[in-house]
Amino acid sequence: MFQSQSNKPHSPPPQLAEIQTQLNSALSTKSNPNTIVGDSQDESHKGARYYAVLVFMLIIVIGGSLAYIFGEFNKISTLLTSNKSNPVSNTIKIIDSNNGSIVLLQHNEAGYSIYVRKSGQAGWSNLTISDRTAKMPSLSLSGNRVAYISEIDQPHIVIAHSNSDQAMRITAEQISNDVREKVNIDLGKLNVCIRTSPSISPNDSLLAFFLCRENHSEALLVVADIISYPPKIIWIYPSSYKNNISKNIAWLNDLELVLVLNNEKSRENVVEIIEVTK
């Protein structure tokens, strides 16, 4: 006799069912993006990217700051070294200031330069562009003239106008005959002393300075009339001075000079008021 068959599906064998369960579990874990393992890896990658971006931004900020600093430094260096702006050097001194004008002396490895600036003037004027031997400047009371020592060719005095290119040159040769006539003795060859600043009188008409004998043993204080050219010696101080003594001169008024002598060896200091007689 035939037995009737049931419509109920057959269950797989136990071994096959266990394998199927493990496979389904593995596939589910691999395809599911929300598993714990996947979350840990994503967070690790996100942290690495964050620190990489942070380091990159710091490099950009530091690099930009350094570029700005070096750029500003170059601008400042260019500004300071330009003759049209502000003179700069290894050594710079304020020499004199009168009536709204000021004189500076610059000294560096290239030599000396003398700058002047008048009140209301934009920038500094270099009076000695082609003369790097210029030194010992002084400013007139009016502020319009600057006298200084130059050693081009031979030591001489230059009297320059602070607001023009006009200048007067005074050499020892020009005035030696005047000196000899007044002292009536043979002084030998004379040179303009380079260790003392010449000084212009308050009325801009006279110049006081020192002449040295060729052997540099003595120095004579003289006054020249600089109204006309060539200048003429009008007065010589009767006493001479040892050339190794530091000397400074300045006008007290149109007829009187202040002379300061400093003997470094004996440490003696002398201040004299001298009347200039024409």
Topology record:
Elements: H1 14-31, H2 36-81, E1 91-98, E2 101-108, E3 111-118, E4 125-126, E5 135-139, E6 145-150, E7 156-161, E8 167-171, H3 172-183, E9 190-192, E10 199-200, E11 206-213, E12 218-225, E13 232-242, E14 246-251, E15 256-263, E16 268-275
Antiparallel strand pairs: 1-2, 2-3, 3-4, 5-6, 6-7, 7-8, 9-11, 10-11, 11-12, 12-13, 14-15, 15-16
What percentage of residues falls in helices of 4 or more residues? 25-40%
Shape: elongated
Order of helices and strands: HHEEEEEEEEHEEEEEEEE
CATH topology of the domain at 91-275: Neuraminidase
CATH class of the domain at 91-275, please?
A: Mainly Beta
Structural class: alpha+beta
Rg calc: 45 Å
- Give the CATH superfamily of the domain at 91-275: TolB, C-terminal domain
Count up the helices: 3
Roughly what fraction of the amino acids lie in strands? 35-45%
Please report the distance between the alpha carbons of the first and last residues. 170 Å
The biggest beta sheet reads: 5 strands, antiparallel
CATH architecture of the domain at 91-275: 6 Propeller
Report the average pLDDT across residues: 75
Number of strands: 16
Low-confidence stretches: 1-10, 29-38, 72-85
Structural summary, described in words:
With 278 residues, this protein is α+β, with helices and mostly antiparallel strands. It has a domain at 91-275: Neuraminidase, CATH 2.120.10. It has three helices and 16 strands. It has helices spanning 14-31, 36-81, 172-183; strands at 91-98, 101-108, 111-118, 125-126, 135-139, 145-150, 156-161, 167-171, 190-192, 199-200, 206-213, 218-225, 232-242, 246-251, 256-263, 268-275. The strands form four sheets. Strands 9, 10, 11, 12 and 13 form a five-stranded antiparallel sheet that branches. Strands 1-2-3-4 form a four-stranded antiparallel sheet, with no helix packed on it. Strand 2 and strand 3 (111-118) form a beta hairpin.
